[in-house]
Amino acid sequence: MSPWRLAAGRFRRNRAAVGAAVALAALLLAAAFAPALAPADPLAQPDPVRLQDRPPSAEHPLGTDPYSRDVLSRTLYGARISLGVGLGAALLAVVLGAGVGLGAGLAGRTTDQVLMRGVDVALALPRIFFLLALFAVWDQAPAWAVLVLIAATGWFPTSRIVRAAVLSLRESDFVAAARALGAPGRSIVWRHLLPHVAAPMIVSASLDVGNIILLEAGLSYLGLGIRPPTPTWGNMIMDGKDVLFSAPWVALVPGVALVLTVTAFNLAGDGLRAALDPRSA
Amino acid sequence: MSTPAAGGHAPLLEVRDLAVTFTGPDGVARAVDGVDLVVEEGETVGLVGESGCGKSVTALALLRLVEPPGRIAHGSSVRLEGRDLLALGAKEIRAVRGNHVALVFQEPLSALNPVLRIGTQIAEAIRAHEAVSRGTAKWRAVEMLQAVGIPEPQRRAVAYPHQLSGGMRQRVLLAMALACRPKLLLADEPTTALDVTIQAEILELLDRLQQKLGMAVLLITHNLGIVAERTRRVYVMYAGQMVEEAPTAQLFARPAHPYTEGLMAAVPNLEERRERLRAIPGQVPPANAWPAGCRFHPRCPYAWEKCREEMPPLLELEPGHRARCWLVTEPGRRKA
User: Fold this and answer.
1) Which residue of chain A comes nearest to B104, CA vs CA?
2) Is residue A280 pLDDT above 60, yes or no?
């Protein structure tokens, strides 16, 4: 049996992780089909005077917000931002981190030192303040820019993991043997190095998704990054904070969605870690 | 010196004055120091010496696989069919590795990638040199597994290295090394990690494949028994230098260098009962502090003044038999 199939078997036996994965799949589908599932237009304000802060009803299953918009519809559309930015930025960060890590691990000592000291400096900068400052200046940043900038400030730990793995792998006998038989550099990278670092990369990316979703929500809550009226869970919570006691559903619905989603990603990520690294289980 | 013999006949492999240096905090170590070596087409040549004498580094240097801080010194020459391997570009030397000259390592488990199926690994070795499709390469990998005597090659091709025994893994490594039909196989202690019975099987397999493919083999080992049975000529290496070279029969009948003599005396013998194994006193000196004069003199039972001061060249005793020892010029001192 292949190592991947063995890992899949271990993952399937982990009930919490499977439950989380199922929940995430459902959430992904809900986000993908948001236009079909949403009962109302997430941006429409049918009657800001009479329909604001209405409790759940047949017409608005999860109530309305202070601008009379449908909370369920906004939460569904907000999932697109959270999941899109979370998954997209995590994926991009892994690719960037793997690229730099491979480069540092394979290049000569000078390149390695320059790259890794750069990473040391980058890790010392507080990411959240850096992003706050950036979006305070760039106040019309589109969603893809939020994704790219979050990824661009999040790949440093991955690059360290990959570099460390490459440094030890490139001294291994099987890499020496492959070189001795004339394997070209690309085959050494794709066949011998990346499969070995794939597992730690997948784990670090999946655990990163939750953090990125929280980071994006935090930025949105502060009114930075993706701008209203586009619904994000972060700016929905902000919309609800002034009516927290009179209309708690406005903030609670996206808040609960956020907590459940991040918990699910962390559980699934933990399950992946246990499944892919038998020693840690 | 390195011009091929008249008549346009160049040996398959001709190494002249090969030196490899390692620069470290303790100074410069000349791990390989002026080695000459010739392998003719189709012949099996032994390279013998104890750990640390430079035999593995020599093998790596032939394919330019020495990693920094190791460096092949200027003035070294490695010619394969007359072509200077040390002058090739990165792409050209890569095309030589595995394709014309293949190297098999001694650790059959760690030399295989644990996460790849063995069929895939052999196929990759083929695809490194030949523009064939994945499917064709896989099919040829199965053929190679059959050629190295692995039963049910079709099924074994999808196995992972940990599912095979040590002997099977060594066969897989041989299949990888021979997949592109190299003209020269550098076998670095190919059986050291195996049981004695498996060792014999692998060596016999190697013999058979050699005859079938018509390749030359440089058998690098510390095991004199292996060399005696399978090689035509033997080089003996000590402290980074060749100390003796001879046709195998002559070497065993009349070892000229005291080091060779010591090696042979150290092999236990069934006919002669001994209380203790005979060992050569002392150790190989570290490569950054070779002794002056003959490098073997601190361990040599015959050493005299001259040995401590002047390094002997390789001196010829009889055609094809040379030894780096002053005894060749003063045979009378051997009794002493």
Assistant:
1) A177
2) no
